[in-house]
Amino acid sequence: MRKRWMMQISVLVLLAATVFSTGVTFADTGNTSSGSFQERVQDRLNAAVADGKITAEEATEKLARLQERLSNMKEKMQFRLDSAVSEGKITEEEAAERINRFDERGPRKFTFIGRDALQDRLNATVADGKITAEEAAEKLAKFEERINQKRAGLQDRLNAAVAEGKITEEQAAKKLTNFEDWVVSGGKVKNDGKGHKGGFIGRDALQDRLNTAVAEGNITEEEAAEKLAKFEERVSEIRVKLQDRLNAAVADGKITTEEAAEKLAKFEEIVDSGGKFRGPRFGHSGGNGQSNNVNNAVYQGV
């Protein structure tokens, strides 16, 4: 009990140090889920540390990263609102209300509506006299410009994936078709060729894939060796972190030494043969520690 109490105190000290160093202060929200977006995130981080899902240092890092991101977003938002106020599109009170709403709710989750819905929305706003036909045309042109940028980036990633043997030309064409459907109809586009999304393929399968890519002339032997070395480097980093977490879990009595050894052996098996490593659960139902980040972190860039 004393050990857990001391851990909670250290967490609060670290979080407080981060808050004061970044110039942001939080009110004491207790156990309620109300309050600002940042306060709710801090509560979740405190709970994650207390449950052993992340360390106090990781919580501090996540909080600092969030504060930086929110600060940048708020600065851009304030600039746009100031412009809207100066142009008479909204009042100062409406601008202040939007800023307060951002502080309370945090960033909005954006769902792309698609070209058809955007055109309908612009037509409606023009008909209502909220914007002019020229402004609507400008917004649509900006939309097409961003889509062209996304399309070019996607095409480059797909070409690279085909060249490295990660996907076939048919799969690349299908992904591009899905993208064009998304542009027209909106929604969420799934895996756009950024990388492997299933289970981690493992060292053996990676070696086979690299050998095939070299044989087909898609990459050189030096490039294959470099990718394999990067793979081993990432695996080593993850192995060290996993070992530290397992040692901490054993020390805290959450798992036994035998269970820790079993989890580490499972990790090594996944590294060789592939699959999904679920990570140490430590008896908590809310998370699994490593989760699929192990697979993604190892595979990314290979």
The gist of it:
It is built from eleven helices and no strands.
Give a structural overview.
It is a single chain. The chain is built from eleven helices and no strands. It has 302 residues and is mostly helical. 69% of the residues lie in helices and 0% in strands. α3 (56-86) runs antiparallel to α4. The longest helix is centred in the N-terminal third of the chain and has 31 residues, at 56-86.
Write the SSE topology.
Elements: H1 2-21, H2 37-50, H3 56-86, H4 92-105, H5 115-127, H6 133-163, H7 169-185, H8 202-215, H9 221-251, H10 257-273, H11 293-299
Helix pairs in contact: 1-2, 1-3, 2-3, 3-4, 5-6, 6-7, 8-9, 8-10, 9-10, 9-11
Task: Identify the notable features of this structure and list them briefly.
single chain; 302 residues; mainly alpha; 3 domains; flat
- Binned strand content: under 5%
- Largest sheet report: none
- Given helix and strand content, the structural type is mainly alpha
Categorize the overall geometry. flat
Order of helices and strands: HHHHHHHHHHH
* Total strand segments: 0
Number of helices: 11
First and last CA, distance? 45 Å
Radius of gyration: 25 Å
Poorly predicted residue ranges: 1-33, 191-198, 280-302
